Amino acid sequence: MAYSTQWDDYRKRRKIFFLIFLSYLPGIYILGVPLERYLSSEIPLIVIATAWIIAFVVAGWHMNAWRCPSCQETFFRRRWVHNQFARRCVHCGLEKWADKR
After folding, report:
1. Which residue has the higher pLDDT, 58 or 84?
2. Predicted TM-score (pTM) of this structure
């Protein structure tokens, strides 16, 4: 059984995570700073920054909750062990990006 569909899902989750991460400072500068100046208040900046941080945390959790295509357990987490840089599933040892077992 080929795992390409599952790996595509992981790639999508990873892209969303990094897009949110990399767009934080530009987003704050483009959205928050002008609103802060226009409204003469720091509240819009705080709201936008908080929303972005929440989105970052949710996207990170969603990426880390991705399940191994082989064993259907979380690929990067095991009870007390968490390794976001794992090259193999922490449960079954499936290599990252493997097309089939």
Report:
1. 58
2. 0.85
